[in-house]
Amino acid sequence: FSSFRFDIYRKVPKDLTQPTYTGAIISVCCCLFILFLFLSELTGFIATEIVNELYVDDPDKDSGGKIEVNLNISLPNLHCELVGLDIQDEMGRHEVGHIDNSMKIPLNNGDGCRFEGHFSINKVPGNFHVSTHSATAQPQNPDMTHVIHKLSFGDKLQVHNVHGAFNALEGADKLSSNPLASHDYILKIVPTVYEDMSGKQRYSYQYTVANKEYVAYSHTGRIIPAIWFRYDLSPITVKYTERRQPLYRFITSICAIIGGTFTVAGILDSCIFTASEAWKKIQLGKMQ
């Protein structure tokens, strides 16, 4: 009894093998192909991938039912003393002239205004709007043409592989609109979670937007125009998870590449060798 019996990789003596020119070409091509696939798999193993999923839940339960909002908007034809931010929602909040964490920057020698504000809203349907409602004296014809530089909700996500509508209204230009028109932006806010490799989660919000502009009238005459942002929250949460390919999957792929390539190359070499030998025999038969 010998342990050599269990050797399934029996060796063929070198003097019983026959090298060929086509076999050498196939071997070189086979090695280059394996190297290319190995480098491709290695790149994929080192790099991280972003996996997304959808589920119904409120991901940021520690926020106290609040969403942070960042607004940056320019009104080039409205004085800063007339510009104000109003907030209201279905929980009964009705705040006119919100001033906390806000800043007004004069534009066009004081004829215009850039409003920058950071405030919070409740996680219920509602609206916030830029208007002249908080002004001590209402202007006759307030010009609500504007440019939106930024409107975002929650934390700022700067992730290379995540392309979402986190600032969908960036660059919205309404300077050529009717100066006396109101503007309605209807927002559907989608909670978004990003989890990195360490398991740390960041909470943000994407949103879709539809808009319209109109001149509103009532029985008393024309209604003072405003820029409305009407929002509602989606029950669906989008989660992005940063992952890296498991080591066992990388090893399995490499084994499959090497084994599969050598097997196919061996079959190809065997077919070419068999065909060339048969052709030589046919040629010898013709000569005889």
% residues in beta strands: 35-45%
In helices, the fraction of residues equals: 10-25%
Instruction: Compute the number of structural domains.
Output: 2
Largest β sheet strand count, sense and barrel closure: 13 strands, mixed
Q: Gap between N and C termini, in Å?
A: 52 Å
List SSEs in N-to-C order: HEEEEEEEEEEEEEEEH
- List segments where confidence is low: pLDDT < 50 over at least 5 consecutive residues: none
Query: Mean pLDDT, rounded to whole units?
Result: 88
Evaluate the radius of gyration: 34 Å
Q: What does this protein look like?
A:
The protein has 288 residues and is of the alpha+beta class. It has 2 domains: 64 residues, no CATH class; 191 residues. The chain is built from 2 helices and 15 strands. Strands 1, 2, 3, 4, 5, 6, 7, 8, 9, 10, 11, 14 and 15 form a 13-stranded mixed beta sheet that branches. It is elongated. Pfam families: COPIIcoated_ERV (PF07970), ERGIC_N (PF13850). One of its GO terms (biological process) is endoplasmic reticulum to Golgi vesicle-mediated transport.
List the helices and strands and how they pair.
Elements: H1 21-46, E1 48-56, E2 66-75, E3 84-89, E4 94-95, E5 102-107, E6 112-122, E7 126-131, E8 147-154, E9 172-173, E10 182-195, E11 201-214, E12 217-218, E13 221-222, E14 227-233, E15 236-244, H2 247-287
Parallel strand pairs: 10-14, 10-15
Antiparallel strand pairs: 1-15, 2-6, 2-8, 3-4, 3-7, 5-6, 7-14, 8-9, 8-11, 10-11, 12-13
Helix pairs in contact: 1-2
